[in-house]
From TrEMBL:
<dbReference type="InterPro" id="IPR029035">
    <property type="entry name" value="DHS-like_NAD/FAD-binding_dom"/>
</dbReference>
<keyword id="KW-0808">Transferase</keyword>
<dbReference type="InterPro" id="IPR003000">
    <property type="entry name" value="Sirtuin"/>
</dbReference>
<feature type="binding site">
    <location>
        <position position="135"/>
    </location>
    <ligand>
        <name>Zn(2+)</name>
    </ligand>
</feature>
<feature type="active site" description="Proton acceptor">
    <location>
        <position position="127"/>
    </location>
</feature>
<dbReference type="GO" id="GO:0017136">
    <property type="term" value="F:histone deacetylase activity, NAD-dependent"/>
</dbReference>
<feature type="domain" description="Deacetylase sirtuin-type">
    <location>
        <begin position="1"/>
        <end position="257"/>
    </location>
</feature>
<dbReference type="GO" id="GO:0070403">
    <property type="term" value="F:NAD+ binding"/>
</dbReference>
<dbReference type="Pfam" id="PF02146">
    <property type="entry name" value="SIR2"/>
</dbReference>
<keyword id="KW-0862">Zinc</keyword>
<keyword id="KW-0520">NAD</keyword>
<feature type="binding site">
    <location>
        <position position="160"/>
    </location>
    <ligand>
        <name>Zn(2+)</name>
    </ligand>
</feature>
<feature type="binding site">
    <location>
        <position position="157"/>
    </location>
    <ligand>
        <name>Zn(2+)</name>
    </ligand>
</feature>
<dbReference type="GO" id="GO:0046872">
    <property type="term" value="F:metal ion binding"/>
</dbReference>
<keyword id="KW-0479">Metal-binding</keyword>
<dbReference type="InterPro" id="IPR026590">
    <property type="entry name" value="Ssirtuin_cat_dom"/>
</dbReference>
<feature type="binding site">
    <location>
        <position position="138"/>
    </location>
    <ligand>
        <name>Zn(2+)</name>
    </ligand>
</feature>
């Protein structure tokens, strides 16, 4: 729970900053109802009997897509369909901060597209997105709905006419590298930021957990619902253990006209 002293510091830091970057993880979207991966209520602990013989990392890997595409797409459709979820207070306040010129960028580990639904423009999705997919043969892009709405269990390209031309999501799978261009832009934004807010992430996933090392400026603020199990940067100004929704409700009040 945030203390009055922490709240005053948070308001001071945010109001004197004009180039804030927000780095977010799964905890940003759990309050919209989207499960995270590793908590007791998360995806990895609620696989269901259909996938109980598989390791969760395998089901979201390039190896599974390549060797067992029928299994990959069955799991993807059941567990990764976030189309009906809506942005929560955190997404909405971040969009507001961008609109009023306080926030310059969002770097997110999430693939659900809720920041864009809330109205954020400058979003770097370092793990990709479910909102776009593409043909592995010709590279043609499709709307992300194609995989979920396609009549085929394994979606194929309508233009290639090749049974090997599979449509895959623009999501970074296990065994794949992060997108270089997006990572480069995200790092550049963090390097230029005057304040960095880390929210809803345990800082345990490599290489995303190394991103905060690029921040060189004034205020490093960490907000997480659970105490962190890893050491944080010695320059961290503020660590708040509370729900993001509670904190961003208070941030919204700070910037009421």
């Amino acid at each position: 729970m945030i203390t009055n002293e922490q709240l005053l510091l948070l308001e001071k830091y945010l109001k004197e900053s004009n180039n804030i970057v927000f780095f977010g993880g799964a905890g940003v979207s759990t309050e919209s109802g989207i499960p995270d991966f590793r908590s007791k209520d998360g995806l990895y602990n609620n696989m269901g009997v259909d996938f109980s013989k598989y390791k969760p990392e395998y089901l979201l890997s390039f190896a599974c897509l390549y060797h067992e595409p029928d299994v990959f797409f069955e799991f993807y459709r059941q567990k990764m369909n976030t189309r009906n979820y809506k942005p929560n207070i955190t997404h909405n306040v971040l969009a507001k901060l961008e609109e009023i010129g306080k926030l310059s960028a969002i770097v997110t580990q999430n693939i659900d597209g809720l920041h864009q639904k809330a109205g954020s423009k400058n979003v770097y999705e370092i793990h990709g997105t479910t909102s776009v997919c593409h043909c592995m043969n010709c590279g043609r892009e499709y709307d992300g709905n194609y995989i979920f709405d396609c009549d085929e269990n394994i979606p194929h390209c309508q233009y290639c006419g090749d049974e090997d031309a599979i449509i895959r999501p623009n999501v970074v799978l296990y065994g794949e590298n992060l997108p270089e261009y997006t990572v480069s832009k995200a790092i550049s934004a963090i390097e230029k930021a005057d304040s960095l807010i880390i929210g809803g992430t345990s800082l345990t996933v490599w290489p995303a957990n190394t991103f905060l090392s690029y921040f060189k400026s004034n205020h490093l603020i960490i907000i997480n619902n659970e105490p962190l199990d890893v050491p944080v940067n010695e320059r961290t100004d503020l660590i708040i253990t509370d729900k993001l929704g509670n904190i961003f409700t208070k941030i919204d009040e700070m910037f009421k006209e």
